[in-house]
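STRUCTURE:
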């Protein structure tokens, strides 16, 4: 039994301080406010908590009425992963679109405007950007969330994104350390493994993180992935060699280390969330993210008690827990200072040489388009088409709440546009019957990853050569159709940019 140098209430407060839990509902439940009063220092927000900017601002104000320096975190990448606009689709293209344009000032402006909107709603920690180098085109969870497959490109845009967010007082949390790009397994469902040598890891996976640390990212999020060259036994989130040895000592990062969601199967199905949380803090993590799937008081209490008991039994050094809690409070103090200075006020997103802040997302989406004309001459559509959306199963990070595609935007430009959604049992005959004599606009997403989708698209184009094809995922397949538009992301704003081209606007 370890003899504690501090009172149990201090230990309990430290254990609560390192948790970043979620909750259900659009107002703060009583249990959450009570735990904030007892020491809980962070709250994570998800799409289920947000319906409008005014409501979100009222929610964060209520949290800060309980504790002025509470950290309010969110998973707002823009693009396919949005919580602010979960029901409508994002006003900003994601990383793949920004990397395709490859204008770091544009990326900085997008991140700045996104950060300004977060700050206006009282959110001050963003679990973004993704600094993963998407070297595996079959990656089921990263894909368009990455700036691209080139480490140098990913590094420079990660830096620009961190700069943009933090210039308006929103702390960036660069993820998923040490790099989730070369995986073909989604860590929400199982434990991915990367088996490459150390030289490759340093030259590819670690390059963007090294750049982000040099740029001053306030936080880094760990990945639930096994990198055998670094630690053959434990995933990065639970590995002292990776979090303390590599990230802290070798790369020199002194900010907040946040875990990815502990209820993800890569951790919970092997270690359990209580054991996993203790191992993560012991390995060098400072904050435990939980709440995407488990969002109740019982989860908070279970993790709190697991950490307290681990200290009391000597499994977790008290000094390590105290250090983690101190790093959480240090970041909270940084964000609080920025709020006090009001650096995120109206107009902060306007930068010389860029589009006005509120329109920068649309500007970026338009610039990211890659339009390829087919052999047949294409004229802009002037009558309402039929949109056939070939829809893959959404990954957990993106979710299935957020609409994607171009039908709504085409309907705005070409009233009468209708749409149908088709899955793995897609019948081209059904598409043609639904379309009738209208032009077909086929919308796909990562067609190279889904043989059923590629086959259906080929058959549709063969039957109707005047089909317009819109690829809203990774643009890995050869262009086809009378017109092929690669949007490099499925955000609402990407759909709007593509619709403008189709309608000649």
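SEQUENCE:
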């Amino acid at each position: 039994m370890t003899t504690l140098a501090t009172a149990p209430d201090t230990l309990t407060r430290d254990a609560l301080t390192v948790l970043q839990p979620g909750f259900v509902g659009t107002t703060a439940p009583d249990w959450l406010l009570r735990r904030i009063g007892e020491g809980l220092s962070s709250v994570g927000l998800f799409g289920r908590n947000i319906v409008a900017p005014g409501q979100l601002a009222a929610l964060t104000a209520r949290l800060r009425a309980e504790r002025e320096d509470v950290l309010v975190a969110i998973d707002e990448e823009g693009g396919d992963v949005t919580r602010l606009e979960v029901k409508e689709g994002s006003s900003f293209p994601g990383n793949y679109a920004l990397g395709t344009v490859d204008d770091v000032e544009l990326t900085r402006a997008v991140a700045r405007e996104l950060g300004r909107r977060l700050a206006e709603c009282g959110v001050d920690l963003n679990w973004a950007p993704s600094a993963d180098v998407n070297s595996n085109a079959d990656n089921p969870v990263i894909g368009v969330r990455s700036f691209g497959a080139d480490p140098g490109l990913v590094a420079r845009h990660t830096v620009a994104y961190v700069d943009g967010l933090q210039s308006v007082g929103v702390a960036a949390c660069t993820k998923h350390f040490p790099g989730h790009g070369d995986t073909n397994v989604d860590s929400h469902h199982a434990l991915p493994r990367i088996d490459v040598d150390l030289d490759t890891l340093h030259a590819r996976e670690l390059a963007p993180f090294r750049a982000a640390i040099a740029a001053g990212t306030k936080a880094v999020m760990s990945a639930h992935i096994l990198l055998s060259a670094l630690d053959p036994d434990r995933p990065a989130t639970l590995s002292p060699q990776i979090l303390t040895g590599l990230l802290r000592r070798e790369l020199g990062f002194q900010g907040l280390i946040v875990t990815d969601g502990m209820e993800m199967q890569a951790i919970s199905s092997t270690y359990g969330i209580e054991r996993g949380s203790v191992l993560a803090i012991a390995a060098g993590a400072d904050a435990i993210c939980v709440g995407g799937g488990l969002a109740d008081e019982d989860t908070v209490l279970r993790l709190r008690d697991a950490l307290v008991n681990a200290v009391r039994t000597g499994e977790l050094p008290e000094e390590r827990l105290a250090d983690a809690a101190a790093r959480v409070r240090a970041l909270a103090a940084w964000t609080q200072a920025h709020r006090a200075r009001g650096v995120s006020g109206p107009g902060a997103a306007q930068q010389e040489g860029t589009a006005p802040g509120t329109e920068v997302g649309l500007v970026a989406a338009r610039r990211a388009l890659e339009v390829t004309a087919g052999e047949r001459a294409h004229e802009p559509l002037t009558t309402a088409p039929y949109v056939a959306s070939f829809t893959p199963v959404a990954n957990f990070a993106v979710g299935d709440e957020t609409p994607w595609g171009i039908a709504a935007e085409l309907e705005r430009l070409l009233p009468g546009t209708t749409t149908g959604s088709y899955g793995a049992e897609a019948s081209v005959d059904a598409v043609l019957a639904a379309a009738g004599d209208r032009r077909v606009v086929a919308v796909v997403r990562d067609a190279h990853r889904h043989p059923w989708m590629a086959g259906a698209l080929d058959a549709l184009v063969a039957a109707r050569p005047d089909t317009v094809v819109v690829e809203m995922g990774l643009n890995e397949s050869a262009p086809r159709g009378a017109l092929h538009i690669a949007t490099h992301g499925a955000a609402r704003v990407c759909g709007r940019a593509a619709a403008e081209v189709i309608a000649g606007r």
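REMARK: The longest helix spans residues 318-341.
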